[in-house]
């Protein structure tokens, strides 16, 4: 019966974590470039139950007791949220008309799990990657994200525009004041290995765009979040019902345990 307590409780905790992930997706449904998290549920490793005992073997000296194990069967110990996997599917693109907004549109990619990103510099001076092209120009004339992180060029340097009067070509070059600067577009062959850090940033291994990979950069556009709000709401309702089901199971176990302690013991 105690195993039932743990199994029902683990189910409740898993659905709680799933609810948190879905709530975060819905909260970011209007965040440009946001990639929805997909919770993956997994059962805890199964335990092989065995009965331990002894077997008497007659011998000339009277007998010998040998330890034996009789298989009973497997025991599943519940479920848990193994990880949150971002969905890197391309979001819809909408026009904003703002010159500092940029939408990075994936073309042909050499790997099914690959994706392209803008390269930015976080507060610690480290390179990070983002799909959020909601950029602006700071007081010193540098192109920055809406959190103030520098947008980098291919050489890993902050991009100086000295204002919002610049153009961006579809193949990723920024033209301002007579200079042409290649934007730092990075490619991750396996985007699932990147780690979400918040504010739309990803950390991990990404490098130069390889031969065979194509993309289009659209100035004055933004890639929207790829969250399907209607689907996320449906999944939240499903998760809530499963939480309630585990809760009722836990209550039933609790009532049975109460009877075992208070009534059966009294009868004895």
Automatic annotation (TrEMBL):
Residue ranges of domain Flagellar hook protein FlgE/F/G-like D1 in the record: 114-175
Gene Ontology terms describing biological process: bacterial-type flagellum-dependent swarming motility
Protein name: Flagellar hook-basal body complex protein FlhO
Pfam family for this entry, one: Flg_bbr_C
Key word Coiled coil present: no
Family: Belongs to the flagella basal body rod proteins family.
PROSITE patterns tied to this protein: FLAGELLA_BB_ROD
Gene: flhO
Flagellar basal body rod protein N-terminal domain residues: 5-35
Lipoprotein listed as a keyword: no
Primary location: other
InterPro entries, sorted: Flag_bb_rod_N, Flagellar_basal_body_rod_CS, Flagellar_FlgE/F/G, Flg_bb/hook_C_dom, FlgE/F/G-like, LlgE_F_G-like_D1
Keywords, ordered alphabetically: Bacterial flagellum, Cell projection, Cilium, Flagellum
């Amino acid at each position: 019966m105690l195993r039932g307590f743990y199994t029902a409780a683990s189910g409740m905790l898993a659905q709680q974590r799933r609810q948190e992930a879905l709530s975060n997706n819905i909260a970011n449904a209007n965040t440009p470039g946001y990639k929805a998290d997909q919770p993956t549920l997994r059962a805890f490793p199964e335990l092989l139950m065995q009965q331990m005992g002894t077997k008497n073997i007659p011998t000339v000296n009277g007998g010998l007791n040998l330890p034996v194990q009789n298989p009973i069967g497997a025991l599943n110990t519940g479920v848990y949220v193994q990880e949150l996997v971002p969905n890197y599917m391309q979001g819809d693109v909408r026009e904003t008309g703002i010159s500092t907004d940029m939408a990075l549109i994936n073309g042909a990619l050499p790997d099914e799990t690959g994706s392209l990103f803008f390269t930015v510099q976080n507060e610690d001076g480290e390179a990070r990657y983002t799909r959020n092209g909601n950029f602006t120009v700071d007081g010193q004339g540098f192109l920055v994200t809406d959190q103030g992180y520098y947008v980098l060029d291919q050489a890993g340097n902050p991009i100086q525009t000295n204002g919002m009067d610049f153009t961006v070509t579809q193949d990723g070059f920024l033209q301002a004041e007579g200079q042409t600067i290649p934007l730092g577009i990075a490619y991750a062959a396996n985007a699932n290995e990147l780690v979400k850090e918040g504010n739309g940033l990803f950390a991990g291994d990404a490098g130069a765009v390889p031969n065979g990979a194509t993309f289009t950069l659209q100035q004055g556009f933004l890639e929207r979040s790829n969250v399907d709000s209607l689907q996320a709401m449906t999944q939240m309702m499903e998760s809530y019902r499963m939480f309630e089901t585990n809760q009722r199971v836990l209550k039933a176990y609790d009532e049975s345990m109460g009877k075992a302690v208070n009534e059966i013991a009294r009868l004895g």
